[in-house]
């Protein structure tokens, strides 16, 4: 299922969505270049989110060596940077399609600042959850999955019954249909089984092999839904 449009008229151009899509594409093109030169694996190891490095540094700093806080603060930016890295063409295309279809409407309804806060906050908080759930994980976690899940959760909470123009690939045919927005709650998880398609050359880095990724993204969906409910309640008061 490929979402196309929800036919909600935008109140203003979704500038922040343009920027987020552009930044993700630019960084992915840079990753492709690094893959050609053989530098991608070390780049992902340096800037991807590796829970064991952060949890280990925090434990070391608390119990053994306060100077290890330097390492903690050195690795913390990966919570932010990892959400702009992607491991395959299918992963970035899937994420950006969801960001465009669902994010642009949210930007029009609740404003670009709140959408940006949802995206970045969701990505960072789901990254923290991954560290807590798998503190010994030694492989890099990359991708905007947590951030997009938060955007999707907010949209589904706001427009659960909204009809989405959808293309259903069937062999070599593409069938246009309309589906309710909540259908994508299930498809969001199913499509990630195909995120290995078009993987970049990262033989030295076994990325995104965490055992709790789906649960973390479920948290992202809940965060988005809670955030939109909070916004609506605060707007009425």
UniProtKB/TrEMBL annotation:
Please give the organism. Answer: Anabaenopsis tanganyikae CS-531
Q: Which UniProt keywords apply?
A: Hydrolase, Membrane, Protease, Transmembrane, Transmembrane helix
Coiled coil ranges: none
- The portions of this protein that span the membrane are 15-36, 48-74, 80-103, 115-133, 139-156, 168-190, 210-231
Q: Where is the signal peptide?
A: none
Protein name per Swiss-Prot or TrEMBL: Rhomboid family intramembrane serine protease
BP GO terms, sorted:
proteolysis
Tell me where in or outside the cell this protein is found: Membrane
Peptidase S54 rhomboid domain span: 74-228
């Amino acid at each position: 299922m490929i979402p196309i449009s929800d036919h909600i008229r935008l109140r203003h151009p979704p500038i922040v969505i343009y920027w987020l899509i552009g930044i993700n594409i630019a960084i992915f093109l840079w990753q492709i270049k690094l893959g050609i030169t053989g530098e991608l694996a070390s780049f992902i190891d340096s800037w991807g989110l590796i829970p064991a490095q952060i949890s280990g540094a925090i434990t070391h700093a608390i119990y053994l060596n306060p100077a290890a806080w330097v390492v903690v603060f050195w690795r913390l930016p990966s919570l932010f940077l990892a959400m702009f890295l992607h491991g395959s063409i299918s992963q970035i295309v899937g994420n950006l399609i969801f960001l465009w279809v669902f994010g642009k409407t949210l930007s029009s309804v609740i404003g670009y600042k709140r959408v940006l806060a949802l995206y970045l906050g969701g990505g960072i908080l789901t990254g923290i959850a991954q560290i807590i759930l798998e503190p010994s994980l030694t492989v890099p976690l990359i991708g905007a999955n947590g951030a997009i899940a938060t955007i999707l959760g907010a949209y589904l909470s706001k427009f659960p019954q909204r009809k989405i123009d959808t293309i259903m690939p069937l062999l070599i045919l593409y069938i246009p249909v309309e589906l309710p927005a909540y259908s994508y709650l299930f498809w969001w998880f199913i499509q990630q089984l195909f995120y290995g398609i078009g993987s970049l050359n990262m033989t030295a880095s076994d990325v995104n092999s965490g055992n709790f990724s789906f649960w973390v993204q479920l948290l992202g969906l809940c965060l988005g839904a809670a955030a939109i409910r909070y916004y609506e309640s605060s707007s009425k008061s």
